[in-house]
Amino acid sequence: MWIRSTLTYRASFALTVCGNLLLSGLDFVAILLMFAQVDALGGWALPEVALLYGLSVTAFGIAQLAFGSVASLGGRVRDGSFDTLLVRPVPVLAQVAADRFALRRLGRGVQGAVVLGWALVAVDVDWGVVKVLLVPVTVVCGAVIFGSLFVAGGAFQFLAQDASEVQNAFTYGGTTLLQYPPTVFGRDLVRGVTFVLPLAFVNWVPAAYLLGRPYPLGLPEGAAFAAPLVAVVCAAAAGAVWRAGLRSYRSTGS
Fold first, then answer.
1. pTM value > 0.85
2. How many CA atoms lie within 13 A of 203 on its CB side?
3. What distance in Å separates the CA atoms of residue 74 and residue 79, rounded to the nearest whole number?
């Protein structure tokens, strides 16, 4: 329904997507401006940083398109309209994700994919079957990891009711963090986004394998192929948190 209503005004939809694409592209413009002054950032060249950027933004764009509407859950909890979702014969999470579905969010994912495509051509990589297959697997797993953060953040809003900015700190903040190489951050921060909130498996670890660079924190040899396992664990954890949040929900009575 929301997609059909969006496409009713096609010119407006196209302009909005283009606007989102250009706005999200400002992050990469900032990176280009940095490289206008330096040859490397934390020892990483521009095509290598572009690879990190492309993997992160493309994965985040997919997750945001699918679960971005979960961020507005707090409003429904506060005004009691969440009750209407509970009486429909459709999974509640699916309804929340589809609520006011914004197809205009395609712009961010498309922009990330464009940068990723350029980076894959520009980086100096000895491509083989394994490395070629690792790229789409990494994007899909990254989308699942970010999607899990959206769902877990939505579950937190059952308790906090107005925690969208807290959720954004981990989702939007996470993708911004991953656009830069791990070598520019402190070791404790890298540990946190590797072992506590495993965002490093969205791009840092797989990109290190593709580029022949050392893994962050000296991770073992097969760490680049652990992204599917990490994604499954994140999805399972987010599902458990969502179900716990749903059980804790108490209607406003209105």
1. yes
2. 27
3. 9
